[in-house]
Amino acid sequence: MKILVTGGSGFVGREILRQLAGLPHTIRVLARQPTALRGVEVHRGNILNPGSLAGALDNIDAVIHLVGIISEVGANTFESVHTESTRNMVSAAQKAGVRRFIQMSALGVRPNAVSRYHRSKWAAEEIIRQSGLTWTIFRPSIIYGREDLFVNLFARMSRFSPILPVIGSGASKLQPIPVEDVAACFVGAITEPRSFNQTYDLCGPERLGFVQVLDTILSVTHRRRLKLHIPLGVARLQAALLEFIFPKLLGKAPPLNRDQLIMLQEDNIGNPDAANQLFGLKPISFREGIERYLIPVGAGQ
Length: 301
Description:
A 7-stranded parallel sheet has the order 3-2-1-4-5-6-11, sandwiched between helices. A two-stranded parallel ribbon has the order 7-10. The protein has 10 helices and 13 strands. It has helices at residues 11-20, 78-96, 116-129, 151-160, 179-189, 210-220, 232-250, 258-264, 273-279, 286-291, and strands at 2-6, 26-31, 41-44, 62-65, 100-104, 134-140, 143-144, 163-167, 173-174, 177-178, 198-202, 208-209, 226-230. By secondary structure, the protein is of the alpha/beta class. Helix 1 crosses helix 5 (179-189) and helix 2 runs parallel beside helix 3. The chain has a domain at 2-143 and 178-202 and 269-283: Rossmann fold. The mean pLDDT is 93.
């Protein structure tokens, strides 16, 4: 099969490309600024510019659509990157005669969600469900791995700071899942007919509060740090300031925004049984997963 991947340079995208490389598929990546990728065709295009998609889906059998953001900057809003990009890709697939479409969504999406992130992801799902394509939608919880921007952030922070921040109570639940498992589901779904027109939660076996996640990271790295709980009101003021400074003055996405604060106060949990059974996943604990790549104190740091 010939597969088009959007978001191939991202954290999950890189793992999907790695796993696809060992299979008898031909891979094409859509990228705004193409770079040489071994064994991969690259089509220069922007998902927000439908005209640039011309030719991107020629002779393609399946699309894996991964593009997403967690902070906004300029024209890259939640609605444009999540909803409009999906509309553009679905339209391009329909015109090119592509039938298979696999979508990256997120746990927590729903029509009445408080966060714009979740609402924009829900709107994207609705476009796909109404497209007439043969689709599969995956909704992962927090994804971790050697190159993640979540576990590694707090692990690095704990190297230099005696304090780790916790916004609010830190009691909201997460079900972290390894990036290898997420990628395996996307790759497996390409030719798995039982996944056609189905939506799957992708999440680990444990429901952990944010404080528990930090404690596990500290335990694996053999560190002890104080945890400072930041009141939500204070965090909102900080986020509002960052939303002004980074996009408007620095031209970058802010490291924290008010939409993230909304999501941090909600449980990010689901039921992984259907995906685990269909794709043969063997769930491991969060601790086992991060022990694969976090380096303990005294072991080379």
